[in-house]
Amino acid sequence: MHLLRSLFTAGSLAALLVSAAPAYDGTVTVTKTKEVTRYHTKTVSTIFTKRQACSVTASSLTSAPIGPSGYHSSSTPSIATISTSSPSNTTITSSKLTTSITSLSSSATSYPSATHSTTAAYPYCTSDAAFASVDSVHPRLFNYNGTGAKYFAGTNAWWASHILSDSDLDTVFSEIKNTQLQVVRVWGFGSVNTDPGPGSVFFQLLNSTGSYINYAANGIPRLDAVVSYAEHTGLKIVLNFVNNWSDLGGIASYNAAFGGNATSWYTDSQSQSVYKDYIKLLVNRYQCSPAIFAWELANEPRCHGCSTDVIFNWATEISQYIKSLDAKHMVTLGDEGWFAPADNIGDGSYGYGGAEGVDFAKNLGISTIDYGVFHLYPDSWGYNETWGSTWILEHDQVGAAANKPVVLEEYGYGSPNNHTAVERPWQLTVLDDTSLAMDQFWQFGTTDLSGGLSDYDTNTIWYNSTAEYDILAREHAAEMLEKAV
Ligand SMILES: *[C@@H]1O[C@H](CO)[C@@H](O)[C@H](O)[C@H]1NC(C)=O
Ligand SMILES: *[C@@H]1O[C@H](CO)[C@@H](O)[C@H](O)[C@H]1NC(C)=O
Ligand SMILES: *[C@@H]1O[C@H](CO)[C@@H](O)[C@H](O)[C@H]1NC(C)=O
Ligand SMILES: *[C@@H]1O[C@H](CO)[C@@H](O)[C@H](O)[C@H]1NC(C)=O
Ligand SMILES: *[C@@H]1O[C@H](CO)[C@@H](O)[C@H](O)[C@H]1NC(C)=O
Ligand SMILES: *[C@@H]1O[C@H](CO)[C@@H](O)[C@H](O)[C@H]1NC(C)=O
Ligand SMILES: *[C@@H]1O[C@H](CO)[C@@H](O)[C@H](O)[C@H]1NC(C)=O
Ligand SMILES: *[C@@H]1O[C@H](CO)[C@@H](O)[C@H](O)[C@H]1NC(C)=O
């Protein structure tokens, strides 16, 4: 924290804090006295028109001080706190805010230099759809949108937040929607240590002087667009906050900036402080949106060789922190579902031995973790394909004992194997032999983007690939929706 604070002089610490009273059901509009190019005006005008009871903090959304090179800091000091429960629009002006932004804007000559545009074709936080929740009558299932418990299927498209085109997002969400998949897991992270230039999407730049949030067109507006398209199509997304792996930055990018290694990261005070600031930014920004299915702590967190207490304690603290910011959305961990010897499951081999410092059963006991997730990649982990159904049944049983929903959040089996032959039996195990609330195949691919193919790997189930897609995506999505509760 001290590093972030030292970045700014007192004069630039101007921000506007607006909170709508929790029960407020009207609209609030924040009006700036002067238009500033790099100021993120879209969120200002949309998030406060949400006709849903919730409290929003303008400073954390759009009015945070602009740091060096046109980045905003993730710290959120305020110069004014304005509360309203008025049923009509409230106009708030702040000369300090305008002055501050004007001067910083004119001094920010380096990248990102492009004028920030309002990218998303649709605003976000305007849908009246209900939030997803754990169903109160059937606590192992989800209530997707207020219409009662249901089983459903979803998918992963990590890259949806890392493509630059809105019309491509339109294509992606339309295709997923017409497949009847309900939930899309998308990377909420993307961090770098040096600016890669405007062609690459990144949300956070980390270096020895702190964390800089990228509000340029190749930054946070891409996440805004994902949320807005999900809302528009009536889909929901799982957004995670960091990657264990170094793809798209990950824990390694924190360590490169602040020191530490893959295991010390979970307890490193500076990394954790920056990570929590990033969580706060996204949670405050999208907490009004019914398109958020759940917040997820990380993608595949591991602490190799550690006591399972390290991840358990970290997951406890971070999930509590998220709930303190946003009590309405669900929270999940994002792990691969490793068991530890204490669980007394399996044969003691890799998936059961606790080598990665993760104990699925223990972590599911955390009260601020709403549902458990696990992944399934037998060919990468040294298991045969039929073991996949065993792994599925074991996680279902632990979910039953904890009386919480459990989701098969990623599953795949690399080409040249026949995806249908290997994965269809797993889907039928989920469907017929468990109470798993949802499964999400890894991963959705489409050939219909403006640049051609979406990012893909050997597990990809292609939208154009009719036979495979018809069974693993369309048929499975339909049969899960039809499954009797
Ligand atoms: C860190 O990145 C910011 C934003 O690009 C830059 O202004 C700052 O000088 C960098 N700090 C170091 C030590 O390179
Ligand atoms: C509040 O302002 C927004 C944006 O200008 C407008 O669409 C909306 O109708 C206004 N609401 C009321 C109650 O005046
Ligand atoms: C969402 O709500 C609509 C009605 O508004 C309903 O038809 C649909 O089945 C619901 N979806 C799920 C997954 O519950
Ligand atoms: C990671 O850092 C911790 C704390 O400094 C240290 O105890 C541990 O040995 C390091 N691990 C590796 C693999 O270097
Ligand atoms: C991810 O976790 C594993 C196990 O702890 C570790 O070996 C690996 O280095 C991690 N990845 C990164 C980028 O730190
Ligand atoms: C697959 O592996 C399991 C143990 O993980 C073993 O019991 C089973 O016999 C194996 N099946 C085949 C077809 O090799
Ligand atoms: C893949 O497996 C499915 C199900 O077993 C089968 O119907 C299909 O013909 C196979 N495809 C190929 C290309 O072998
Ligand atoms: C779908 O597109 C992928 C990527 O271009 C290609 O490998 C595959 O052959 C296509 N499938 C069909 C059925 O056209």
Question: How would you explain this protein's 3D organization?
Answer:
This protein has helices at 2-5, 41-47, 58-63, 95-107, 166-178, 220-233, 250-258, 269-286, 308-325, 360-364, 378-381, 387-402, 419-433, 466-482; strands at 16-20, 72-73, 80-84, 133-134, 142-143, 149-150, 152-156, 183-187, 191-192, 204-207, 210-213, 236-240, 292-296, 330-332, 372-376, 406-411, 438-441, 444-445, 461-462. With 485 residues, it is of the alpha/beta class. The strands form five sheets. The chain has an eight-stranded parallel sheet. It has a four-stranded mixed sheet with strand order 2-11-10-9. A three-stranded antiparallel sheet has the order 4-5-6. Helix 5 packs parallel to helix 6 and helix 13 packs parallel to helix 14. The protein starts with a helix and ends with a helix. Residues 1-119 have low confidence and may be disordered. One 2-acetamido-2-deoxy-beta-D-glucopyranose binds next to loops. Residues 1-23 form the signal peptide. It comes from Friedmanniomyces endolithicus. Keywords: Glycosidase, Hydrolase, Signal.
